[in-house]
Amino acid sequence: MRPPCEAVVAVTGMNATDNPAPGVAVCRSLRAVPEFRGQVVGLGYDALDPGFYAQGLLDAGAILPYPKAGRLAMLERLRALRSELGIDVLLPTLDSELRAVAASERELAELGIACFVPRLDALAAAAKARLPELAGRGGFRTPDSEAVGHAEAVRTLVDRLGLPLVVKGVFYGATIVHSEADAVLAFHHFAASWGLPVIVQRYVAGEEYNVAALGDGEGGLVGAVAMRKMALTDKGKGWSGVTVDGPDLLRTTGALVDALGWRGGLEVEFLRERATGELYVLEVNPRFPAWVYLATGAGQNLPWAYVMLACGEPVPELPPYRVGTQFVRISLDQIQDLSTYGALSASGRFGSVGVRRAS
Amino acid sequence: MSSDSSRLRQLAVSESGFVFDPLTGHTFTVNAAGLAVLSGLKAGLDVDAIAASLGASFEVEGGEDLRRDVDDFVLRLREHGLVK
Amino acid sequence: MSPRYERPVIVRHALGGADKFGAANAVRPVRDFEGVSIAELVAAHGSPLFLFSERLLRQRVRELRSQLSRRFDDFVVAWSYKTNYLGAICEVMHQEGSWAEVVSGMELDKALGAGVPGARILFNGPAKSAADLEVAFRTGVHVHLDHLDELELAERVAERLGLRPQVGLRVHIGDLPVQQWDRFGFTLDNGSADQAVRRLLRRGVLELTALHCHIGTFVLDPAAYRHEARALARFGRRLEREHGVRIDSLDLGGGFASHNTLHQQYLPGEELTPSLGQYVEQLADGLDEGLEGAPPPRIVLETGRAMVDDAAILVATVLANKRLADGRRGVVLDAGVNILPTAWWYRHDVLPVEEPRGLAEPTVFFGPLCMNIDVVREALMFAPLEAGERVVIGHVGAYNVTQWMQFITLRPNVVLVSERGEHAVIRRAETVATLLQQEEVPPWLRR
Fold first, then answer.
1. What is the ipTM of this complex?
2. Domain boundary residue among C253, C283, C303?
3. How many domains does chain B have?
């Protein structure tokens, strides 16, 4: 096993669109480590995933079969990429990949690919559908919610929880509905996109906060950074945000990580109720958020700590982060010839990791 | 053979099988045999000659109907608007 | 040495992404089944061909029994005949200690005919005739009643026979995180289950000793069984308190998912399907909560699909390749929805038998029927296949060889492969003679 600073790290989630996957932010965090002389490989699902084209970000890139194709298809592909690109560490960033990676940790290790991901039972316990149960264990609040498997149950919940309601897909997406008809419509929309169950949650009015964190797998928190979104896109994604000092946010994140024995990156979405000031956990995402580069910028490089843990290295205590650090996302057009696109389309990958960068 | 080789000569074809059509902006992937057929068509060869060249440059088992394969491929090129 | 020939292919890149991952093949071929080569099996038994693994069947039942034995002292696993009632499959199940769970007179006759004692048969379903009930009561079959008309019919039959049979009631529990199956049983929430119990006790013709519930099919959320078991156990305890009845058996039905993938699922079944242990865990927890320390009754499970679905494959042969109007490749197989009706519910795995070579393209697999609906699998990235090559369709053991139809083509051989690699036909392929045997031409039409 190569030491972390020389590792070939493969990062998934190159889909940096206006609803971005976290891959680019993770890769930038690795590039920000002065002693890192290793290589970064981007893994995506489409030849046009924008992260593949970010200048100076990747040494190589490759296309994976969609999670829909199953765990074995993913393993076969990673086996091939391990021999072609010498991948040492895998850092998955998409919810839909986590289960397959977590279920394959031993097989990946046999291939020589290390990762640092939650155990399957922790992953299941953090699922949206089981949040109320987890809240009981972790001693925090979460808005009343239920996982439903058919449209009829949505109508029952409209009666029980009242309107408005939040309807969520099992992996992605959430929408606020103000009528029973909209609730049923949203149910069908999310069921069609992501399958069952669909989560129906009581709407709580208040301000949202997010925490990016890394658990050490033994109940401890390696690092955690709290942020409030300052600007949203029309899809509700943060386009700008600022780090905040939130002792109760960090405390709750710590309790949650402890209750789950969480291993790896995560994002906790919070809501502070306007009327009461109470803190609610809305969701636990089992991977780093797309804004994780803000944590790096504010002084806690969580993706790098992940790589060290995956390589079995101890992580020195991360310094407190700088409150008041802001991120503003920008869109910019990358210009190039067709060679990267051509290579990805024709052979499923581009670049090579043969040549080491000068340190 | 109605293929118009001048249209084919405009295509940018990489050795890895990536094809770019500068007229429409469409991109394609072709396999090794497809590449061989494309270059045969560009050179103005007819279907029989291309089929024969496939037989010469690839290891064939004997049961394949190379002529039919080339015809099918040309049909696909026509659907993509790459030959008339 | 020159490269191996594969047909020339050109694939246009779709706007914003087909599921492409370059030239690398992400599937491994399935060359053999239980150590016997697919080629040998097809040479011996023809194509298409259903292949069942005796080892996998036994392994699944044993796993379920071992999970149940961790939490229960007294439990029964019953084989759901409708899932697959081929004699050889039932025999394997019975050898593994399973009772028979039947839902029609035909299935009842089949189980009794195979030598299953009545005391090891559960009789469910919404359509039992007087004749069926008579056979059941005479042979000591456990009858679970579905509705009031059936309850009355059962009382009449029992009175006529001069018997006081022990029966169960099927109950419907609302408010579970599954599609509601309220057409079966007496609803608990609206009091109709209580009403049925009062009626049954007042008449005193039948003896109530069991409760039965079956919450649905392909249930992916094990927590649903916790709710079910809790509600059923509570109901049983309430009946004991209020009426002094002794409920000695709780039949929690079935519905565990196999490793297939429903069309509406995003992730494949291989990842999403809970383990048998997870189901049993929830079920047992729910029961503990419902019993609150009371002595546990016998637990009955009759889950069929999760036992047999993953133990079988269907081998099919490529008849032809064609190019569809939208550019996708169509592959015509000799097996269609006539023998694989589950293709309407599942995205079945389709895997090559030979090492795939060449560029994978979006491919649709059709069956041989002259019917537009005959689609075995939509939209799968697949390397080129030549006519005569074989593919394997996975997870086909449940419902196909019971729900298949004789339509346009004939039904093929079904073969069981033993752990030692022996293989034998367990249902012979039909011939035209099979059909003619059932037909008559009236005298006035005969030439």
1. 0.91
2. C303
3. 1
